[in-house]
């Protein structure tokens, strides 16, 4: 479907400068990176950022199709944009736009940009506004990342933890997952491009960068093949450690097969790598894992997790777990539960299987009723809550380093909030008024933990850390409810299922 197939035949009447753009992100952390990069691109082009509920000249919805909920949220956001800005350009991009462009056109989008063409999105919008001929974009073009979206510095109104894309696409083809169809094959970003962006982001004020992609652990494999590049990701991490001023590197999600001895060895001695590892499990039953097309068994998973925990003291280890995969029996679910019980996990993201048309799992028999999926999910969510509370409690009495993210909570309590490298969210009780110079966003501070609950640990300031930098305002890209914290997008959680923790 050509981009010129639009609902709005004329460019919007624009009688003011600068132009206003509102961006809504739906989906995973990779989408969030791309939304921040688009935000950065629109800023460079002279646009003003406004909230998604406000009147704007351009609305961009970065869509998600990982589940039915992602689809629904994406359609809803496009409809909202069209209602709020009747004459506006409403752009739909991202995975749902790649998969079902017509449904988003029907919802009110008048510019669809495929995943592989996102780097041209800002220019495509500018041309529309100027009334110039459209770029020759094709929403139906096969997804493959040729160029990566770039962030050159601090994203205006972005998040405190900078995100840095190192990879896109996936070659795994798990049987439930739609993502390889909408993101294409695995492509690694050139190392020099990553380092250049990292330096620019650090110079602009970020002290923590989270590396993101669809299948981050496979970084480098597309260039050198699976056998010859086990250390490619480790080499990149080592080079990033050399970026002046960068204090933390976060590696959000790595598939179990890619948690190599080299990576664990690096983690043991790294001065920068956050002790936070998200290693998707999906199921702890070997039969289910095989039917999911996952290329490891429960023994391998257990070995990797145990080795990581033994090697990196204080590590926060989380996992994605899917319940209700077609044919999953009660006994197979219990196998998952029992495996988790035996491992030093700190939290789970629990998803109910969500059927995605066009995946091999769609054709499998014995799709579980919603009630069964909900019951199993609830049990794991409760399990996760207990584990997270215990992990938080293990920090009581300790002094920890916290990166401040926000200096005022939305409830006006004046507390500052931040994260430790091992992903404990800390509320600082004796600082954080918006004018308090001791505790501002992007600062690293020492905090003594006094009390812990499941969502937060509470503490007080100790000695301020050195090397702090000025604060920037925090009004991030708006995110839709379908966002899930696992780094890559998996075809799993459904409309009723919440993630256990974030
Ligand atoms: S679940 Fe993850 S590893 Fe498997 S195909 Fe989807 S994106 Fe790739």
Brief rundown of the structure:
With 502 residues, the chain is of the alpha/beta class. It has 14 helices and 19 strands.
Walk me through what this model shows.
Residues 1-13 and 465-502 have low confidence and may be disordered. The protein has helices at residues 29-44, 68-84, 95-99, 101-107, 121-130, 179-183, 191-204, 221-224, 232-241, 261-269, 286-292, 298-311, 330-341, 370-393, and strands at residues 20-25, 48-49, 58-63, 89-94, 111-113, 162-165, 167-168, 187-188, 208-212, 248-251, 276-278, 316-323, 347-352, 399-406, 416-419, 425-428, 444-452, 457-464, 478-479. It is globular, with a radius of gyration of 22 Å. Strand 12 (316-323), helix 13 and strand 13 form a beta-alpha-beta unit. With 502 residues, the chain is α/β, with parallel strands linked by helices. It has four domains: 20-143, Rossmann fold (3-Layer(aba) Sandwich), CATH 3.40.50; 158-274, Transcription Regulator spoIIAA (2-Layer Sandwich), CATH 3.30.750.210; 278-394, Transcription Regulator spoIIAA; 399-464, OB fold (Dihydrolipoamide Acetyltransferase, E2P). The strands form five sheets. Strands 1, 2, 3, 4, 5 and 19 form a six-stranded parallel β-sheet that branches. The chain has a five-stranded mixed barrel with strand order 14-15-16-18-17. The chain contains 14 helices and 19 strands. Iron/sulfur cluster (SF4) binds next to helix 6.
């Amino acid at each position: 479907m050509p981009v010129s197939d639009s609902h709005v035949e004329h460019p919007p009447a624009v009688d003011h400068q600068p132009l206003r753009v509102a961006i809504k992100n739906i989906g995973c952390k990779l989408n969030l990176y791309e939304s921040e990069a688009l935000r950065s691109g629109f800023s460079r082009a002279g646009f003003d950022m406004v909230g998604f509920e406000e009147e704007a000249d351009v609305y961009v919805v970065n869509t998600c199709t990982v589940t039915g909920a992602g689809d629904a949220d994406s359609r809803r956001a496009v409809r909202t944009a069209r209602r709020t800005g009747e004459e506006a350009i409403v752009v739909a991009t991202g995975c749902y736009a790649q998969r079902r462009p017509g449904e988003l056109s029907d919802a009110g989008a008048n510019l669809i940009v495929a995943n592989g063409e996102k780097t041209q999105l800002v220019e495509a919008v500018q041309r529309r506004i100027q009334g110039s001929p459209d770029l020759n974009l094709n929403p139906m073009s096969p997804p493959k990342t040729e160029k990566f979206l770039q962030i050159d510095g601090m994203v205006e109104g972005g998040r405190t933890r900078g995100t840095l894309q190192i990879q896109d696409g996936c070659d795994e083809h798990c049987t439930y997952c739609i993502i390889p169809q909408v993101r294409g094959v695995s492509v690694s970003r050139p190392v020099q491009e990553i380092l250049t962006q990292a330096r620019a982001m650090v110079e602009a004020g970020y002290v923590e960068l989270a590396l993101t992609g669809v299948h981050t652990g496979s970084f480098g494999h597309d260039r050198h093949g699976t056998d010859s590049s086990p250390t490619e990701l480790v080499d990149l991490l080592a080079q990033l450690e050399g970026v002046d001023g960068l204090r933390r590197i976060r590696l959000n999600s790595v598939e179990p097969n890619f948690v190599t001895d080299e990576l664990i060895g690096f983690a043991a001695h790294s001065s920068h790598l956050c002790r936070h590892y998200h290693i998707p499990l999906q199921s702890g039953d070997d039969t289910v894992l095989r039917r999911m097309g996952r290329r490891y068994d429960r023994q391998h998973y257990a070995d990797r997790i145990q080795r990581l925990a033994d090697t990196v003291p204080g590590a926060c280890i989380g996992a994605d777990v899917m319940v209700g995969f077609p044919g999953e029996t009660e006994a197979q679910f219990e196998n998952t539960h029992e495996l988790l019980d035996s491992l030093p996990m700190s939290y789970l993201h629990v998803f109910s299987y969500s059927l995605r048309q066009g995946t091999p799992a769609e054709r499998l028999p014995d799709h579980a009723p919603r009630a069964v999926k909900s019951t199993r999910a609830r049990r794991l969510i409760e399990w996760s809550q207990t584990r997270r509370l215990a992990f938080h409690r293990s920090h009581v009495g300790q002094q920890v380093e916290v990166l401040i993210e926000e200096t005022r909570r939305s409830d006006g309590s004046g507390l500052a909030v931040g994260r430790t490298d091992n992903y404990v969210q800390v509320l600082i009780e004796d600082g954080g008024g918006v004018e308090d110079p001791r505790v501002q966003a992007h600062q690293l501070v020492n905090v003594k933990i006094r009390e812990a609950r499941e969502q937060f640990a509470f503490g007080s300031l100790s000695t301020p850390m050195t090397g702090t930098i000025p604060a920037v305002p925090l009004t991030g890209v708006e995110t839709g409810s379908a966002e899930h914290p696992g780094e890559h997008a998996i075809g799993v959680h459904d409309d009723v299922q919440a993630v256990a923790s974030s």
